[in-house]
Amino acid sequence: MACNDTHVALNESTPPIGSHYTAVPVPLRIVLVIIMVFMIAIGFFGNAIVCLIVYQKTAMRSAINLLLATLAFSDIMLSLFCMPFTAITVITVNWNFGAHFCRISAMLYWLFVLEGVSILLVISVDRFLIIVQRQDKLNPHRAKVIIVISWVLSFCISFPSVIGWTFVEVPARAPQCVLGYTELPAARAVAVTLVVAVFFIPFSVMLYSYFCILNTVRRNALRIHNHAESLCLSQVSKLGLIGLQKPQQVNVDMSFKTRAFTTILILFIGFSLCWLPHTVFSLLSVFSRQFYYSPSFYSTSTYILWLSYLKSVFNPVVYCWRIKKFREACMEFMPKTFKILPKVPGRTKRRIQPSTIYVCSETQSAV
Fold it and tell me: Does the keyword ATP-binding apply (predicted)?
C-alpha cells in the first residue's frame, strides 16, 4: 500500500512534493549531534548495567527487576540500532542508508519503543494490584511469560511498516523514517493502531492505575496517622503492610511504602513528556497534508525525534537517583580510578528476597 503512484518518494533520489524545507541551523545541528552522542553512550552503558545487575545477582532476579531489565534492554537496542543513524542524518541532512533500510529502521524504532511501553504498562498494573487490590499476582515465571508475549505483540504491531502497510518515507523531510501523509484508509488505520498502541492505551491505563494508587496510599497514610497509637498487627495487615513483628515498630512515615511506586511514577511522567509530542506529530503527519509538506516539517521532526530518544537516557538516570542497589552496582562496575566518591560507612548490605515488594521497617524497600 505504501508503494502507490502518489508515494514514489520511497526512492531517496526522488524529491518529494514541496521539497523546500527549513533545515536546522548548522550550529544547532552540531549541538544536537554532540548531545545525541552522549545520549547513546548513557543509554547503552547505563541500561547495560541494569541488565548486568539482574543477570549476575541472583537476589535481584525478582519479577519487577526482570521487567526493568527488559525495559533497559529495549532502550539499549534503541540506542544501538536507531539513534546512530538519526545522528548521522541530522548532521548530514541526507539519508545515506537506502530505501530498504529505511523501512527496517522504522520497524525497529517502533518495535523497541512498543516493548518499552508494554513493560511500563505491565509494571503499572502490577503496582495497582499490589497496593490497591492487595494481590501479588506477579512472580518471576509469570514475568518471563509476559516478557515473551510483549515482544511478540510489539513485533506484530511494528512489522507492517516493513511490508508496506504503512507509508514511511526516506528522510528527505525528516532525519529518520517517519510516518508520512497518506490518503489510503487502510494505511491510515494501521498508523492509528500503531500510535494508539504506543501511547493512548498505555497512557490511559497507567494514568488510571496511578490515580488509584495515590488515592489508596493517601487513605492508608491518614489511617495510620489517626490511629498510630492504637494500631495492632491485624489492623496493619488490613492496610496492606507486611513485615511487622511488633505493633510498636509501626512508622508513621509512609516513605518505605511509596518509594518503589514513586520510582515507577517518575518513569511514567518521563514517558508522557517524551512521547506526547511524538504522538501528536505522528498523527498530524498522517492526516494533515499541509503539516507534512510544510517548510518547518524537517526542523520540527528533528526536535520531536530527539525528545523521543531522550526517554532511553532518562530511565537509567532515574534508577541511579532512586534505587540504592543500582547506585552500589554502578560503583562496583566502575573502574577503581573513577571511584572518586567515598563510600558512606555505617550501613550494612541487606539481602532482599525476590518476592519482597514493600517492607514496613526503618529501612526503605528496593525496587
Answer: no
Q: List, for the chain, all residue ranges whose pLDDT scores fall below the cut of 70.
A: 1-23, 164-166, 170-173, 221-260, 333-367
Q: What cell numbers appear for 168 in the block?
A: 514511511
Write out pLDDT tens, residues 79-111.
999 999 988 888 888 888 888 888 888 889 999
- Domain 5-338 sits in CATH 1.25.40.10: no
Distance (Å, rounded) from C-alpha 287 to C-alpha 290? 9
| Helices 201-226 and 255-287: angle between axes, nearest 10 degrees | 160
- How many whole angstroms separate alpha carbon 172 and alpha carbon 234? 66
In the chain, where the domains are located: 5-338
Residue at 232: amino acid letter: C
Given phi > 0 = left and psi -120 to 50 = alpha, else beta, which region is 93? left
Look-up of cell digits 496511578: 210
Nearest to 94 by CA among 9, 11, 173, 179: 173
pTM of the shown model: 0.74
